[in-house]
Amino acid sequence: MRRREFLKYSAATAVAAPFVRAARADAGTYKVGVIGAKTGPLAPGAAITHFPPYQLWAHEVNERGGLKLKDGQRKIQIIEYDDHTAPPEAIKAVERAATVDKVDWIGGVYATGFNLACAPTFAKHGYPQLTQACVTDQGPSIVKKYPGFFMFQSSTTAYAKGAIGVLKKLKDSGQIGNKIAAVNVGDDFGIELANAGRPLFKQAGFDIVYDKSYPLGTQDYTPVVKAASAANPDAFVAWSYPPDTFGLQAAAKVEALKVKAYYCAVGCGFQAFGGIPGSENILGAGGVVDSPEIRDFYKRHKEVTKVDADYWGSPFYYSMLQMLTQSIEAVGTTDRQAIADHFRNRKFKTLVGEVELPGQILDKVYTVGQWQGGFFSAVNGEGFASSSYAPVKLKSSWS
């Protein structure tokens, strides 16, 4: 699937998914604002990973009668906002949700830089900011500055270490050489990962033979891949967002990029990516461990939202919302600060297992997955038993 085909696919999923927006809500509802890109470069990813888990969550909670509060049950009403892939618009949406629509809860926005940009606005209006699409090493300092900031995610360094750790094992076992071609999308997410990765590659004994950043929204990735190929790398690493993940893979296939390990970041775990010829044995951010429970989640997600859940953010978004449900119902009111207090210093049972947020940052994540036989299997992570990971396989073909 080339980049333009990916955009067509993503537009279709956005149309298929229920769009829930109302100017007024019934008095008996629990209003939740969900802010992300419905237009612009980040819209395809948000249409798959960000909006649908909230829709599934609301559907399932409402099917059982709503959130159980002390004064009775309240059904969830989702109000969706388009930030047009522009941080100033995301900030305006948070302002509108808080002051005009007066929602009970505002979900963390979509994409790392957007969450960081919106943190002061969440804090100003007294809304906790429970994020999932936010991978950054700035977590501890942001939490210190904004005590209502929570990351149901991990750090940039954790993901860089995960990917480089997998490559190091392949190198140390003699399966690949030490030459790396590394590229990154030129926004906060890609820049942080590239900066974290450079010293880690060096420490792991790799030689970076190609290192290039490209703008968010790039249309043609052929020049990037051709230049990387000319450096004769043993492995290719892209700290990428969904459109570039698809575009780089298409260019790599056309150019027959000769590497034994190929890694890309956000979007690699999309089911549409796994269906592309040549995706087998591609490494990427995320992954999950197969189980009847996870299979049932993917089935329910598709039935309710008409969208295929991904193999990274989707199950963690859903687990985050399970934690939110448990906290709201434990508090028994709409008191946002009491709900946020309940996130702290306790464990929660979720789809991805028992989790907690020490320092207000999630304690376990799958950092690397690999497409193997139609499933994006976790091959590395933090906080999970290493015995649960699938063995890593070399990239041998683009067919």
In short, what is this structure?
This protein is an alpha/beta fold and 399 residues long. Helices cover 42% and strands 20% of the residues.
Topology, pairings included?
Layout: H1 3-16, E1 29-36, H2 43-63, E2 67-69, E3 72-82, H3 87-99, E4 105-106, H4 112-124, E5 129-131, H5 139-145, E6 149-151, H6 156-172, E7 179-185, H7 188-203, E8 207-214, H8 222-230, E9 235-239, H9 242-254, E10 261-264, H10 271-274, E11 283-285, H11 292-305, H12 313-331, H13 336-343, E12 348-350, E13 353-355, E14 365-372, E15 375-382
Parallel strand pairs: 1-3, 1-4, 5-6, 7-8, 7-9, 9-10, 10-11
Antiparallel strand pairs: 2-3, 11-14, 12-13, 14-15
Helix pairs in contact: 1-2, 1-9, 2-11, 2-12, 3-4, 6-7, 8-9, 12-13
Biggest sheet, spatial arrangement of strands: 8-7-9-10-11-14-15
Identify the CATH class of the largest domain.
Alpha Beta
Relevant CATH superfamily of the largest domain? Response regulator
Query: Based on helices, strands and strand pairing, what is the structural class?
Result: alpha/beta
Q: What percentage of residues falls in helices of 4 or more residues? A: 40-55%
Q: Which segments are poorly predicted (pLDDT under 50) over 5 or more consecutive residues?
A: 1-5, 7-27
Largest sheet: 7 strands, mixed
- Separation of the first and last Cα atoms: 13 Å
Rg of Cα set: 20 Å
* SSE arrangement, N to C: HEHEEHEHEHEHEHEHEHEHEHHHEEEE
Average residue-wise pLDDT? 93
Q: Architecture of the largest domain in CATH?
A: 3-Layer(aba) Sandwich
